[in-house]
Design brief:
32% strand, four-stranded antiparallel beta sheet, 3 helices, alpha+beta, 95 residues
Length: 95
């Protein structure tokens, strides 16, 4: 079974409020077997628009990645994130 990956690009408007998102999201990430492969850090723009924070999260499957996002646990966290940050997020299937 192919793994699933969240790819998120984020601009944080309220760093203190974003900490609340990280704490709330941890519950869903643990429940769905998430492994962080990239979580912020340095980046180099190659082309197109960029955001300040880039995150790649690996899940055991594409379905687990989708289920995590749609879970009640993550939706609580998403509500917090949407108040303090702007983001684009996609789920992609691994090879």
């Amino acid at each position: 079974m192919a793994k699933g990956y969240w790819i998120a690009r984020v601009d944080i408007r309220d760093p203190e409020g974003y900490k609340d998102y990280v704490s709330a999201a941890k519950v869903a990430f643990e429940k769905y077997g998430a492994t962080f492969l990239a979580r912020g850090g340095a980046y180099h723009k190659l082309e197109g628009e960029v955001r300040a924070r880039n995150v790649v999260i690996e899940f055991p499957s594409m379905q687990a990645a989708i289920d995590c996002y749609n879970s009640p646990e993550y939706q609580i966290a998403a509500g917090i994130r949407q108040k303090v940050a702007d983001a684009e997020m996609v789920v992609v299937e691994g090879l």
